[in-house]
Amino acid sequence: MSNDATRGTWTSRSTFILAAVGSAVGLGNAWRFPGLAAKHGGGAFLMVYLIAMVVIGIPLLAMEISIGRRMKRGAPGSLRGLNKKFEPIGWAATANAFIIEIYYSVVFAWVIMMAIFSFKFAGLTGDSEAASGVWTTLIKTTGTTSGYATISVPVLLCLIGAWAMIWLCIRNSAHSVGKVVKYTVFLPVICLVLMAAKGLTMEGAAEGMKALFIPDFSALSNASLWIDAIGQVFYSMSIMMAIMYAYGSFLQEDSNVAADTVIIAFSDLAISVLSGIVLFSTMYGTGMTTNDMSTSGIGTAFMIYPSAIVNLTGNGTANAVFAFIFYFCLCTLAIDSAFSIVEGVATAIADKFNIAKRKSTLYVCIVSAVISLFFVTGAGLAWLDIVDNWCNSFNLILVGVLEAIAVGWFFKTDSVLKEINRNTNKFRMPAWWFNTAIRYIAPLLLAGFFTWNFVALIKSGGIYGAESGYSLASNIIGGWLITVLVFASGYIINAIVKKNKKLIKTAEDVWTD
Predict the structure, then answer these.
(1) How far is the C-alpha of 170 from the C-alpha of 167, rounded, in Å?
(2) What is the pLDDT of residues 112-141, one digit of tens each?
(3) How far, in Å, CA of 246 to CA of 178, rounded?
(4) Helix-then-strand count for the chain, H and E
(5) What pTM does this model have?
(6) Considering only CA atoms, which of 250, 258, 253 is closest in space to residue 425?
């Protein structure tokens, strides 16, 4: 195990939990979770999500955190410590996270922009159509993969601000993150409670709560419900994205991984449900129903919810205030997730190339910020949609399959479980739960999920977004090519290291019992 004395550590147990919760709780909790609940019979989706979280989400989260703590490395170094052949899996997770951080920063910029321009809703009382068009007008999207000459200045300025905030939050790694999460984790909860209080007082809110919490058991026979619920667990809990290995590597040796993992998972669920209460009560309170909601997070946050905001009250100023609270809430949700993704990438690079963490963080931020400018153009929205689909529907899931198989079948799961349960007092993760989840349930479900998405792609002619006018060429560039690069990244990096082995010191720490 590494004895790197220069590696930062969390200042306290609560700081780590807040940081991990902040990473797990992101924009997907606020908009994608409610949309999927609306699509799949409300309570039925909640029930399946809870089952998936307990059965496979918590074991995988505990696995990544505990391996990171043991090896004191990011994802590639941690997996290399189990077996040198596993390192490319860690780099695939890191490379995919690098792509995600690039476009996620643009979504963060959109949220900042909408918070700044929330005053526009003051003059749109009752005009749902105009409200739903505020965002599309500001970003100047063409809706296609062409239009690179068109640039939205507001988005550009907000993107610069977003990257400045990300850098400031993680410039000193665990130390600076610990200072930030004390505020950014609690602020969105306060905002959500305020919006829920307003929504629940509106006429029709009770119907919204019924739609959210009362299960439509007939929906359980729909395979897409199970696929979406399982997928949301992985998207929501920040696993398979190199983040939790990095966060685990900053843990002190006396940390209680078993208990902390459960706290993180249920905190993530609680905020997702609170977001659902906000969306369902507001939508039903303004005369809208689940039929008006969307599983697209972007559509919900920037087009559908604004339509509800301008119908909250007859007072335009009050509506604008609630619009600001909503988008400010999304800002606080987005920043934790954004800097945690960057942290996972920067940690992996610092470990591999033996460079100062602060320097690797700066390099990652600069390179990512420059590439993210592409998504500020009129074509940016369409390209973001394509890249996001491939990163989440294919790359992320395949990383999960490989991680589970590597640890479950080619390493000692009992050793990992022993690490998880180290320092536990009352709660211990049972062997039957952990081993079954890692060896069987996770790889089978994720492989099935991957196959489901792949078959759906083939049925659409191999083109994602064909109905939106996306071409095969755009899917090859924004999808297949990125996937190839993601899974080849580990071999490319190791080739670079091998060529420059005199200049680069690679950690050779291995897991020993």
Answers:
(1) 5
(2) 999 999 999 999 999 989 998 999 999 999
(3) 14
(4) 27, 0
(5) 0.93
(6) 258
